Amino acid sequence: MLRGFYTAASGMIAQQRSQEALSNNIANMNTPGYKADQAAKRAFPELLIQQMSSKQIPASNGSNITSKKTIGSLNTGVYVQEMIPNFSQGDIRETSIKTDLAIVPGNVPDEDGALFFTVQNEDGEVRYTRNGNFTVDGQGFLVTGQGYYVLDDAGNPIETDGMEFIVDPDGTLQTADGQTIELGISYTDNVLDMVKEGNDLFNGEAAAVPEGTTFTVKQGFLEGSNVDAMQTMTDMMTAYRLFETNQRVLKAYDESMGKAVNDIGKLG
């Protein structure tokens, strides 16, 4: 019976974590470039139950021989192993703001490959993002909404010399004073290796765009979140009902344990 307590409780914890991820997705439904999280659940290791018995051999020394009979496997519950971002393309919407940029992938050689803007976080480390909601800071550098520098293809912060700059479809930025800068567009052949760090940043291994990969950078556009609001609300209701089901199972175990301790114990 105690094992049943743990199994039901693990189910409640797993659904609670799923609900948290779904709630976070809904909260970021309007965040540009946001990639929805999906909870990957798996079972705890199964136990193989065997019945052990012994049989006495009719011999002068009265020896016993042990035997095993397989009863079956027992699952000990479920848990959320990890949160896996969904890297599908979000809708591209026009904003007409010159500092807004969106990457529209064309031909990508790897099925799990993806393109990112390259930025620098507060610790000076290289990170990646699909949120092109940029702006120009007081020093004339192109930065993210959180103030992180947007990098060029050489890994240097991009100085735009003001708001009046043009970005060509191939990712070439032309400043007002005639300078030409290549945006730092990075590519990873496996997006599942990218880890979310918050503030729309991803950490992982990415490199220069390989030959044969095509894309378009659209100025005055943003990639929206890929959260499916209707599906997420449905998943939230499902997680809530599963949580309630495990809660009722846990309550039933608790009532049975109470009878075993308080009522059956009195008969003794």
TrEMBL record:
Record-annotated Flagellar hook protein FlgE/F/G-like D1 domain positions: 113-153
Cellular component terms (Gene Ontology): bacterial-type flagellum basal body
GO annotation (BP), single: bacterial-type flagellum-dependent swarming motility
Keywords associated with the record: Bacterial flagellum, Cell projection, Cilium, Flagellum
Major place of residence: other
Keyword Kinase: no
Pfam short name (any one): LlgE_F_G_D1
Residues of the Flagellar basal-body/hook protein C-terminal domain: 218-262
PROSITE patterns in the record: FLAGELLA_BB_ROD
Keyword Lyase: no
Boundaries of every Flagellar basal body rod protein N-terminal domain copy: 5-35
Cell compartments where the protein resides: Bacterial flagellum basal body
Domain of life: Bacteria
Family statement drawn from the similarity comment of this UniProt entry: Belongs to the flagella basal body rod proteins family.
NCBIfam families hit by this protein: FlgEFG_subfam
Name by which UniProt lists this protein: Flagellar hook-basal body protein
Organism name: Oceanobacillus halophilus
Organism taxonomic ancestry: Bacteria, Bacillati, Bacillota, Bacilli, Bacillales
